[in-house]
Amino acid sequence: MWKMLLGIVIAVSVVSCHSNTAKVTGNVIYVDVSEKADRYLPLSIAVGEIESVKLSLPLPHFWGIVSEVIAWGDNYFLVDKKQNVAFRFTKGGTFLNTIGRRGQGPGEYIEMSSFFVSDSCAYVCDLMSRSIHKYAWDGEYLATIHFPYSIVFDDVIALSDDCFLCHRLADDENGKGLWVMNSEGKIVKRLLEYKQGTPYVYSDWNTLSMGEDGIARIYNPMSGRFYELDADNGSITEALCLRADRNMMDDLISPTGKEIQEGTRECAYSLFAVNGDHYVLSFWSLTPENKVLWSIVRKKDKTVYKGVLPRLDIPGYTRMGRPVSSNIPNALVTLYTDEFTPDMLPNAYKNYVVDEQKAVLSILKLK
User: Using one digit for the tens of pLDDT, what is the confidence trace for 99-110?
Assistant: First the structure.
């Protein structure tokens, strides 16, 4: 299997942007990734407005590496993958509490493999111990659910009936695809099954998210397919398929499902993708050129805009924060931490000293 980390490159410069019309077949949109692209892709093509908020952690807490932002009710939950902890804030930026910690006591875990929330609870999945710990939003430990070591998945979220939705992209003994696991750790329903033998890549970008609207959103970067699951009635639909004009990774499979076909190693995959109401924003990796490409597809007329680097050309902003996974629909969520110098911050925060305790969360809302 192929295993790579997603790297995101950010830059600022003023250039023009060319476009072309995508080939469309049913709900499949093709992006010509082989055609020459502009150096910069102006994000104002798809981004309408930006909402930003300051986030300050009290001592002794500090920011490590945030990989996900979950919005629920009046709360933001920020998942720090480096420290294996989640921070809870109000949407106004007031720190409330942490959730979870490493250890071997009740409610403690070896590693935070996944973090997710529901209407009243927060969960930490620890694949090392095959357990899911349940907490109140204020961080109080409530219970632990165990599942067999034979069950492996990449992402997991809570459903409304005390079950869990699990997603697996890599081959494993319990299969690859999408399934429902109950509170006893048993697989009770398989919703999707992916082709065996296909390569995969690893990324910190989540492939599952649950919205407050009760819709679970699923993305398979190997095929470029977006799915939606209505948690109330259990129905799953394919919302969109975004494919390159060359092989996607799920095409790299032999008839036996064991070996990659000769001559088909040229491919593209998009680990970073936001499927909005009217636009699709994607970050592509091209193999074997080892090149990257950003694209924006306007759904209405299937116009495709492409660039090697993104440019945040919105008044008051000069540099895009680091993109992170999120359940916020129709938006690209980014974070400014101490890796950004003051001149890179939004104009409204130029005098805000970003350090180990301070950050700026920006939500780029798509038109």
Answer: 999 998 888 999
pLDDT in tens, 247-258: 898 888 755 544
Q: Give which of 134, 232, 234 is closest to 183, Cα–Cα.
A: 134
Residue 332: how many other CB atoms lie within 10 Å: 24
d(CA 46, CA 44): 5
If DSSP codes are grouped into helix, strand and coil, which group holds residue 83? coil
Task: Give the DSSP letter string of 187-242.
Answer: EEEEEEEPPTT------SS-SEEE-TTSEEEEEETTTTEEEEEETTT--EEEEEEE
> For tokens 């398979």, what's the residue?
220
pTM: 0.89
Distance from C-alpha of 168 to C-alpha of 179, rounded to nearest angstrom:
9
Q: Is the peptide bond before 42 cis (omega within 30 degrees of 0)?
A: no
Taking the C-alpha atoms of residue 287 and residue 92, their distance in angstroms, rounded to an integer, is 42
12 — pLDDT class (breaks 50, 70, 90)? very low
The answer for residues whose C-beta is within 8 angstroms of residue 323's C-beta and 6 or more apart is 8, 272, 332, 333, 334
CA angle 80, 83, 84 (to 5 degrees): 70
DSSP 3-state of 184: coil
Phi-psi region of 107 (alpha: psi -120 to 50; beta: other; left: phi over 0): left
SS3 state at 258 = coil
Supply φ then ψ for residue 250, to 5 degrees.
-75, -5
Q: Where are the alpha helices (DSSP H) in the chain?
A: none
